[in-house]
Design goal:
Strand content: 15-25%
Largest sheet: 7 strands, parallel
Number of domains: 2
Distance between the termini: 41 Å
Shape: globular
CATH architecture of the largest domain: 3-Layer(aba) Sandwich
Strand order of the largest sheet: 3-4-2-5-6-1-9
CATH topology of the largest domain: Rossmann fold
Radius of gyration: 24 Å
CATH class of the largest domain: Alpha Beta
CATH superfamily of the largest domain: Tandem AAA-ATPase domain
Helix content: 40-55%
């Protein structure tokens, strides 16, 4: 039998896939509640492939945050052995998703972000969708939100879609009340159907505080009953429960440069290759020009008078979108190369009301050991570090997630930064996130570091080859 994936699944992924597929064939919907870095997307692709091979699925709709859409395209390209066509959010023009490219013999995927979907959900109801996947499904836990209602109306209401799958690692934010709207999408058979009044009457009670204030809480015993009813519809997995997980998982979140940032990057890259195409990248002036390219992908560029020019904040917007789903109580390490980026990240943390400490070249000597506060205490929850400064002499395994907001050309610095989390004392699967601007030096740098290259020459070669292809 032809393989559906190029990649072998781990034992727990095979179990999740079998459990979900079997239940969905009988009941239509299921939820994979698996922690970050455990491969939910890979499981979903295998499920789609199995349903397609049975002749049950041709068009798959994926709805998720903007930051995950590019990841789906990358995962398909990396892992799918079946034939497919991928349509991104740009396929939805003026609210109409009808102008799609379809696969004649494989699976057609249409991936859109929540914002587009909640605006144009009526247009999606007209498509012959066989399988609908809601990624980071905790974003539909608010039953009254437009995106939650849109997912239910397209996916489950009136049985318009045959198969539905919800993916999230954090299904419960406050209490089990969060599960109702998520399972409403999965199936109207779960948790007393789609009628909130029935659920509320049986499991909830209202506590009043004075004449105008009140809150809704679970009745005694409701938590256990809700969990019992939900259990057949979900596969719950925590990373630490499985011993066959890889020690480190890398995940790339790609994004596109837009507007002024894209124009500035194209101009700089063209001039760079024209001037330095025959020079080794170790030439100091060439290194400086490469630095400028890396700055632009971060949303700014340094000028000759030492000032900086702000550009489109595409990377920061994508990072903020990803942070929206990151649990507030979970520790997080963020590595960046430029101090300007560190300042932008710190400003975002203040806006999101997350406590943080910074370690970069400006950190006073008396604060160099602030990493111990991050490591040993509940707060701060975020450690923001310049790669070269914060990647040596610190233990950061209080967090299992490290974000490379931007990177370095030095393999040694990169490896040292990774080892701050992946070291003796770490008891959880480590996830490394990489925010990478498509068709830029970000991709070239990541590829070079991934191949353990300790020189910038490979990056220069990649830039040259891309520019020649574009100019051909």
């Amino acid at each position: 039998m032809t393989r559906l994936l190029k990649t072998d699944l781990y034992r727990y992924q095979r179990k999740a896939t079998r459990t979900a597929t079997k239940w969905m064939l009988d009941n239509g919907g299921f939820a994979l509640w698996m922690e970050q870095g455990t491969g939910k997307t890979l499981c979903a692709l295998k499920i789609a492939g199995v349903l397609w091979r049975r002749g049950l699925v041709r068009l798959v709709l994926i709805v998720g945050p903007l930051n995950v859409i590019g990841s789906w395209e990358r995962q398909l390209r990396t892992h799918a052995a079946f034939k497919y066509v991928f349509n991104g959010p740009e396929s939805v023009v003026e609210g109409s998703p009808t102008d799609l490219e379809y696969s004649d013999t494989g699976i057609t995927f249409l991936a859109v972000n929540y914002e587009i979907f909640r605006l144009y959900w009526k247009a999606f109801r007209k498509l012959p969708i066989d399988f609908m996947i809601v990624d980071e499904g905790h974003r539909i836990k608010d039953r009254n939100s437009k995106q939650s209602k849109a997912c239910w109306r397209v996916g489950s209401f009136q049985a318009l879609v045959d198969y539905r799958l919800e993916l999230t690692g954090t299904p419960i934010g406050k209490d089990e009340i969060d599960l109702w709207a998520q399972l409403r999408f999965v199936s109207e058979k779960a948790l007393l159907g789609h009628r909130w009044r029935s659920f509320k009457r049986k499991y909830l009670r209202v506590i009043k505080f004075g004449p105008f204030n009140s809150k809704v809480v679970l009745r005694k015993g409701a938590k256990q009953e809700i969990e019992r009813l939900a259990a057949p519809w979900v596969y719950r997995m925590k990373a630490r429960d499985y011993l066959d997980l890889p020690p480190v998982t890398d995940e790339v979140i790609p994004f596109s440069l837009t507007g002024e940032a894209r124009r500035a990057y194209e101009k700089l890259e063209t001039e760079f290759v024209y001037k330095f195409g025959d020079l080794r990248s170790t030439t100091p002036l060439a290194i400086t020009k490469m630095l400028r390219l890396r700055q632009v992908t971060g949303g700014f560029v340094g000028l000759d008078d030492k000032s900086t020019l702000q550009l489109n904040q595409d990377k920061l917007a994508m990072f903020a979108d990803w942070m929206h789903d990151y649990p507030r109580w979970e520790k997080l390490v963020v590595f960046a190369y430029f101090t300007e980026e560190i300042d932008m990240i710190a400003a975002l943390m203040r806006k999101m009301k997350r406590s943080y400490v910074i370690r970069d070249g400006r950190t006073p000597r008396k604060n160099l050991n602030d990493w111990m506060k991050f490591q040993d205490n509940k707060n701060p929850t975020t450690y923001i570090a310049q790669i070269a400064a914060g990647g040596i002499g610190t233990d950061l395994f209080a967090s299992r997630v490290g974000v490379f907001y931007s990177n370095t050309l030095s393999w040694i610095d990169y490896d040292q930064a990774r080892k701050r989390l992946d070291r003796n004392g770490q008891r959880r699967n480590v996830l490394m996130m990489h925010f990478i601007a498509k068709n830029t030096i970000d991709e070239d740098t990541y590829s070079s570091l991934d191949g353990k290259a300790n020189t910038a020459d490979r990056v220069l070669t990649a830039i040259q080859n891309r520019r020649r292809r574009d100019d051909a």
